[in-house]
Amino acid sequence: MDSINGHDSAASPGKPEGIPDEHSGQTLDNVSVRSELESLRAAYLALQSECTRKEESLSQMIREKEEALKQNSDLLDAIKDVSRLQARSLEREGVLLREKEEIKRELGDSREIVEVLLKEKSEQSREFSQCLDAVKVIKQGMAKVISSISEEGEENQIVESEGGGEDLKVELKGISELVNRVRLKLDEFKEKGDKQRRELEQGLVSLTEENRDINDLLRIALVEKDTVERSLSKLRGNNEQKRGVILQIAERGLQRVGFSFGFMLGTGADELSSETSATASAASNSDGSDFDEEAVSLASTVEKIMKNMRLEVTQLRRSLDESRSEIERLKSLRELQTHKIEESTLYIKELEERVRMLTHKVEELQIEIRGAEKEVVRWRNACELEVQAGKNVSEEHEKVINILKQELEKLRAALQASNSKMKLKDELVASAIAAREAAERSLQLADSRSAGLCERIEELTRQFEEAEKRERANRRMIKRICWPWRTLKFHATQTNMVLVGI
């Protein structure tokens, strides 16, 4: 452009000042094109700066969008964590409820076990009471047996010792003592019965011997009677001699009889002595009685003695039979008592075994009850601690859930705000993209116009060079033109055409 101006200034030294040159139209066109290019360059720079600013805002919006998406993903992760915590808390609550139900069921089972143990304990106490009653009955029976065997003082002693301890062991100990005493009493009674039996047998032997002696004496008396009768038949004339002989015979016979039975049988000896004295007195006082009467009285006396002896023998036999029957009864009673004592001993042993077993079982049950009570207390404390821990955990979970809900609400609000910002940013991005596209279109248009202007400038430069060439050629030719109307008209028309083309 400076070269053009230089050419213009150099080309018009010989022209007049008030008349425009033919190149002035071209200069104006160049100035307008230059100004238009400057304006286009400025618009291009403004559009470029605005485009860079839009790109920066777009990248910032993309970063904010990525951050929002990251926050959204964090929110989703937090929501998942909250849901997982809720599921875990619900699962924990379910586990706690199941454990609580299981503990309640175990408590019910332990209560049932305790009730069963209490029932068994009551049944065992009832069996104990029944055993104690049976033992008391056995003890009373033993006491009755001892009282029937023993004397009165011992019976009183047994009755006094009967009101002792009420415990089953004490009763069993008392029964064992009573059994031992019954055994001792039965042994004593057996020895006493044997002694009585031996005494009765000895009495029976002595009575048999006495009966044999009496028979011998009777035979001797009969022999002496025959002798007396023969002597009396010889002494029929003298009554005093007969009486003396009879009295001597009677006295001798009575002395024999009294000597034989006086030490054995007191009653028979007394009667015999009384009869002898009566006979002697009768014999001494009846001097004038007849010999037949004396013989009859002697026979009656002997007959009475024989009757008394028979009565005593029968009584002794009866007493012997009674003693034998008593011995048999005592033997049967002893066997029965021995059998009862054996049964009682076996029953006492069974009771002792049962008592030992029941005591062992009661101890085991008491140990089990104490263990069950300790287990129940432990389970109860564990349940309470577990329930308290579950409540604390549930409260903590609720607090965490509330905090997470608040954070979730905040994050939702932030997400909504970020979504609204994203929408605005998307709108801004869309507007920026539209502005960028418009700027690109304007740049393309400016490029096309600048290309057209460049072509126009080249064309004008070429024309200017051609015009200079013509001007050089015309300088050599002298033309006289007053005013270049046609040239100006031609250049103005071309300039308008160029502007319309742009």
Automatic annotation (TrEMBL):
Region Disordered: start-end pairs: 1-28
Record keywords: Coiled coil
InterPro entries: At3g49055-like (IPR040300)
Coiled-coil region: 37-78, 172-217, 306-425, 450-477
Superkingdom of origin: Eukaryota
Keyword Coiled coil in record: yes
Signal sequence bounds: none
Protein name (Swiss-Prot/TrEMBL): OLC1v1027441C1
